[in-house]
Amino acid sequence: MTLNKFNLPDVGEGLTEAEIVSWKVKPGDTVAVNDVLCEIETAKSLVELPSPFAGTVTELLVPVGVTIDVGTAIISVSDAVTGDPTPADVPAPATPVQPLYGKLPADDAGTSESALTGGPLVGSGPKADAVKRRPRKTAPAAGVPEVPLPNRSLTPQARPGNPAVVGPGPTTGALDNRPTLGGTLTGLVNRVLAKPPVRKIARDLGIDLADVVATGSRGEVTREDLVSYQAQRDAELDQAEGFWGKAGKPQDQRIERIPVKGVRKATAKAMVESAFAAPHVSIFVDVDASRTMEFVKRLKASRDFEGIKVSPLLILAKAVIWAAARNPSVNATWVDNVDGTDAAEIHVKHYLNLGIAAATPRGLMVPNIKDAQDLSLKELALALNNLATTARAGKTQPAEMQGGTLTITNIGALGIDTGTPIINPGEVAIVAFGTIKQKPWVLDGEVIPRWITTLGGSFDHRVVDGDLSARFMADVAAILEEPALLLD
User: Fold this and answer.
1) Which residues are known catalytic residues?
2) Nearest C-alpha neighbor of 78 from the set 182, 3, 133
């Protein structure tokens, strides 16, 4: 039996540390190559780590919530499989499964450096067909009684692909080895019983049915049980302290301490460096975006954009790409200490990786759309939709956060008119998009209601002077005022 230790890898972004957010396995579990072991939070995003080994988990070496350095051992996996051998434990005699992390040494136990001798992690990838995961036995949930199944036959019809079935006899503890169910019948019957209307009420009230004492004739949670539970919870809340701590307590007991780590730590460091390293200059412009609103309305009704979320942000993104092509120096980087000397250079990018600042549950992230200048309006809309969905789910990958050249921050989504954004490190310009709302506007000598927004732009004054920043912002505003200019 060989004991393999898996060291925290560099996930392809050059970071030196990460935090264990959650474990997806526990000691005694059987894992296959590429099964997800845990989720880690780097300074950029949340990443799933797949297993480079097949075998049985013997020990979790790092608890949840602890930040560790790259190369630290996080889990040990034995190549022996616990329990009786099953076909799922035996690899097919086909091409051996290659781990995602490259070739592994025969035994990396005791090494302080990463166990990888191949390339870095680039994603979780598909699971190999040669090794299948053995069904786990689910332990009964604590505090939840086992409920007998209704009186019915448990013997399913035999059919191809279902070699193991449960025969007649006692239901509790009977094993069902069918791959579609897995585990034990005990795990199946431990689900809390409740009728659909009761489940809906529990969801609306934010009640976990497992916390409610069931008094139904079949052990199910009833409507009356929910009422009783909610009344007890309300009484406890009435006696509990609210947001403000109780007067008279020591001051240190009335202060909530929140550790700064992960995305928040990286964002804070980057913003301080940007704010004090790059001399910021900001300008603002009010824009009549009424024609943009009409254009967005037509796109939503178009069959070409059916099923695609379309918003004014799409037109702004296209406007920024268009304006950057006319004013290339806003899509650049200031580089100090060239070749180890005091010399500096301006690197103008002839591609545009458009960053979109996104507020996520884990803090501010700025994923970017690669080579946005090559995308059609529909392709750009799809890319924006995917970026937003992935960021909200906390699944943005490190590679999507690297290499941005110009950024948009959509503060208007929160109802804010405008602001002074801080430039994303490594860039020289950022555009803040304020809310669009109807305001009185003078048009052809008449005051009429129009859809107005305010754009705010911040620029690194070492690269972008006042004239260039004004021309760039005027070009962006021109597209919002007349989207037809994109056809030029």
Assistant:
1) 461
2) 3
